[in-house]
Amino acid sequence: MRPIHFEGAQIIGKPKNWDDAKDGQCIGLPAMVGVLPNGMKSFTSVWKPSDEERIAISLGANIALSSFGVQTPVTLSAADIDGPIVPFADDISSETA
Question: Which of 10-14, 58-62, 67-71, 74-78 shows the lowest per-residue confidence on average (mean pLDDT)?
Fold first, then answer.
């Protein structure tokens, strides 16, 4: 799945100590930042499955969630939100080749 840009989202950057050479590529994540009634911040990102992933899901595949660093409470839901897919550096270099 790939993150998408969507209305109301802002780019959340990589962690300050992240080293792409050592830790792997980390792109900015489009996310809508909100504040819950208890004052806690919430971050909502939207992910678009590839055609292959959509088929796998329709055939009963589950969705895995991985989190790096401090684990925060999360929720997953279906959302009728669309937008352009966020390119990775590999995508950009392959498009220009």
Answer: 67-71
